[in-house]
# Entry
Amino acid sequence: MKSTRRDLALALLTPALAAAPPQNPPSPAKEDLLEAARAQLRTNSQQLAAFSLDIALEPAFQFKP
Amino acid sequence: MPPIADDIFFAPITELNARLKKREFSCQELTRAFLDRLEAQGPRFNALALSLRESAIKKAKDVDTELKRERYRGLLQGVPFGAKDLLADSDHPTTWGARPYAAQVFPEDAAVIKRLDKQGAVLTGKLAMIELAGGPSYRFARASLTGACLNPWNKSHWAGGSSSGSGAAVAAGLVPYAIGSETSGSILTPSAYCGITGLRPTYGLVPRTGAMALSWTLDKLGPMARTVEDCAWILQAIAGSDKNDPGSAGKSFYYAPQFVRPFSDIKVAFAPVDFEGWAEPAAQPDFRKAVETIRALGVQLIEAKIPEFPYGAVLSTILNGECGSIFETLITSGKVDQLDDAKQIAGLKAAREVSAADYLKAMRIRRLIQQAFAEFFYQYDIILAPARINTATRVSDPLDRPLQRTLPKDRGFSGLIPAGNLAGLPALSIPCGFANGLPIGLQLVARPFNENLILALGKAFQARTDFHQRRPPV
# Structure
């Protein structure tokens, strides 16, 4: 069967694509980054909520007049 | 006098000071030599924020007059140093590595700069940093007014952050030492990545007056230098009470290696999985050798586990809560959009939304973390772990890309950086080998105010190895 120019180009291109280094994904949009930051805070909050604390436990800071 | 030889750029502080006293060169000659090198090479690595040539030469002249009169102030006298550009230096801009603050000038020097000045040290330059010391988070090494700081060992790789310029400048012999800062990893990371020695002191030991605040209850200032002993002498000079710093512990530090207990009495906790499973495969051989070198010093190396807490969530909540308040004006004015890193911008905006309930919960868990480590250090004296499990990232790679390998289920001491910072513990990063031509470092952590213990062990390690003496191809 006769190869077309398209077949030839594909045959040449495929190994080159396979050998190319992995590309970094495109940078996310600002709104996506803000939502991701908020999502991280929610995840933090959930992890903290899973911890039950003694009622007498004070925070790790003190006020001294 | 004959021209200063290149070996001076990699000499420890004690040697520089001795040669100044012997009049092998004057302080002005030494300062000019370092300034010429800093100004020529600093921009190659994006390590230099601002050269302070005029004021440095003036100071050097004063030091020469004192040396001539044999008015000796100590080991730091006449030795040049650099300061991370979050430390205020009067009459010069202190940029915090961030565009919105590029022109700000403070009327007074930071407390640590004043203390070093009193010792006769010569400030030659402000060193590059990640904008706002990294804020809640950032995605790329280029998150800085001065661009990505390049690693002197391989310029395709990052110097680490947020004390990036400090790490690169010391590694490349542009300054004998620098003062960096750490909120969570910012001294240890560039020290490990650049193959230098870095000391994160106990929280409150070194005054932060005149330093940019990122997180009031997490920020610490500390030395980054070529040797453990250099770090010890610098810490002695800068530590101490400061009534202007609400976080000051009111304690001083005296370097006293002679009073450290015999190594055979010292119990060092470690997790083998850190060095074998968590560490980057190419780094594992040198990490293994480093652990054996520590063992050969005669300490008791004991397998142990880190107290279990959600360190990441606790630290992130506290850091976000505090920096959201510190940078309130930056955020609400909209000037936060002038920063370089989009993730940093988003993080700061979101930081304003941390609830009081979450912040207080995190601070209560932090009390438990402190108590757990106090109990831990009844059983053990030091924790030994990798300073970083990987070598320096490629400059072009995002910093939050997941590791492309299977990680062990056993967490080992992988949470030690956030844990140590939450508990206010001192930590020393010492170079211990190479992986694919890039440095790796060990981390030694002790209970609060036990810097002498980790300094003694670190010094003994450096007596048996030469990684701290290796030089990048600058």
Notes: Residues 356-379 of chain B form the longest helix (24 residues).
